[in-house]
Amino acid sequence: MKKEILMRRYPSVVIALHWAMALLILAAYLTSEGGPHVRTNPPTLHFWLGMSVLALFVPRFISRLVQGGPPADNSHGELLALATRAGHWALYALILFVPLSGWYAASRLGLAVSFLGFQLPSIAVDGPPGFLADLHQLGGNAILILAGLHALMALWHQFIFKDGTLLRMLPSLRSNSPD
């Protein structure tokens, strides 16, 4: 017996924010660098990408709290539903923590962080980057791993469970399709 396909989609704004953030996170990861040369040659593109992720986090998270999302398909068991919720909240935590910890590390190094033409205030006093800079790197790795698992599970739902979960977050190819 074929399971009923979940057809209710996320709102278009949430879909756009989701994919924009995914691309920005990947680009930030690919432009990351560390080491002693960061003080003399700061990775400004990496900083800008990280601040972009942080800026998009705010409307994305508010949207999640206010609008929620389509009803979850819990037909695959409560353990999978719990893992799904935990994975989403872990991604949200990392999406907030990684840019903030990077901003902190840059501030500790005395580096200016600019975004959209504005120099952001330093959020820490000058000094060695410290433990939080190490956590920034670990968080960057963790977010990529967790996002990869998130993508694999979406594909698993689409091609193994055949429940339409992935389709709820894909951009619509038809202009007249309801959100």
The CATH topology name reads: Fumarate Reductase Cytochrome B subunit
Decide which structural class fits the backbone.
mainly alpha
**Low-confidence parts, pLDDT < 50 over ≥5 residues?**
none
Rg of Cα set: 19 Å
Shape category:
elongated
What about the largest sheet? 2 strands, antiparallel
Strand order of the largest sheet: 1-2
From the N-terminal CA to the C-terminal CA, the straight-line distance is 27 Å
Q: Per CATH, which architecture?
A: Up-down Bundle
What is the H-and-E element order? HHHEEH
What does this structure look like?
- This protein has 179 residues and is mostly helical.
- It has one domain (12-168): Up-down Bundle (Fumarate Reductase Cytochrome B subunit), CATH 1.20.950.
- It contains 4 helices and 2 strands.
- The protein has helices at residues 12-30, 44-67, 78-108, 130-161; strands at residues 113-115, 118-120.
- A two-stranded antiparallel sheet has the order 1-2.
- Strand 1 (113-115) and strand 2 (118-120) form a beta hairpin.
- Helix 3 runs antiparallel to helix 4.
- The longest helix is centred in the last third of the chain and has 32 residues, at 130-161.
- It is elongated and about 50 Å long.
- The two termini are 27 Å apart.
- The mean pLDDT is 88.
Summarize the structure.
By secondary structure, the chain is mostly helical. Helices cover 59% and strands 3% of the residues.
